[in-house]
Amino acid sequence: MTISGMMRIIRVRQWVKNFFVFVPLFFGGAIMDMSALWAGFVTFAAFCFAASGIYCLNDIVDVEADRQHPVKCHRPIASGEVSIGEGWMLMVLMVGLSAGVLLLLPQHGWRVAGVVAAYLVLNVGYCVKLKDSAIVDVCIVAFGFVLRILAGGEATGIVLSKWIVLMTFLLTLFLSFAKRRDDVLRMDATGVPPRKNTIRYNLTFINQAITVTGAVMLVCYIMYTVSPETQEHFHTDYLYLTSVYVLVGLLRYMQIAVVDKQSGDPTKVILKDRAIQIIVLAWIVTFLFIIYVA
User: What is the 8-class DSSP label of residue 293?
Assistant: First the structure.
């Protein structure tokens, strides 16, 4: 097994998804609290290793299907770069590292461990069976991100707003449907469904699902910014102004999905699309300016 193969199967690039554990710190106004940041980084590392373990399992379970896929056939196990036995060893190692780093948490470690364990159990079920069920599959992916922010809240002792939980679920559901759109396009072009459940999706349904989840997510964000509890917490009633960035960001991602037809890998889109990066950075700067300066 080569270093390159190992890095590819644990999908280090996908670790960016685990920054969701810092969402409670950001919205809780604790980004300058060193103890909270340390707890956040430990939880981030635990989820990175746990997610990598799941990626290993996924590639083991899907090895035969991946070998028939025009893109996934290049994955380490499907291509033979990493053996199935080595995949199992990597999975055990990653899960073990996830459990080990949680020992570094100064407090609430057992609670965070419970959330990480729930994440592992849920995704083992996803890899083995649940990903074959349309709608259920994207809901599980979205709930995985909810577990990330719940873990971040438990690690830092920050109580999450119900709006934050809803927005996280809806945003990641939106991104998951956009990713499935890429599968439907490939199926329509080749006649072969990339996933077993792709036949239960079509462009009309996917486009409507993207529109609905994006719209509801935007409404939730606006309601969060104008809610009395939020205004009292941040001592400002100007947060609603940041809704513009959320709207533009959603529209830009829909443009990438529907016009450019490049929504197959949300992580790749976010890491490479300059417009989305500028929108996210502008949102963060404006949010922080309103809270800490204005």
Answer: T
Please answer whether residues 256 and 262 qualify as being in contact, where contact means their C-beta atoms are separated by less than 8 angstroms: yes
* pTM: predicted TM-score of the whole model, two decimal places: 0.91
CA 289/CA 280 separation, integer angstroms? 14
> How far is 119 from 143, CA to CA, in rounded Å?
9
Mean pLDDT by runs of 10 across the 294 residues of the chain is 81 92 88 89 96 94 78 80 90 95 86 95 94 93 96 91 93 94 88 85 94 96 92 89 96 93 82 93 91 72
DSSP codes, 228-291: HHHHHHHT-S-GGGGHHHHHHHHHHHHHHHHTS---S-HHHHHHH-HHHHHHHHHHHHHHHHHH
Q: Closest Cα to residue 239, out of 281, 276, 284, 278?
A: 284
Contact between residue 140 and residue 122 where contact means Cβ atoms under 8 Å apart: yes
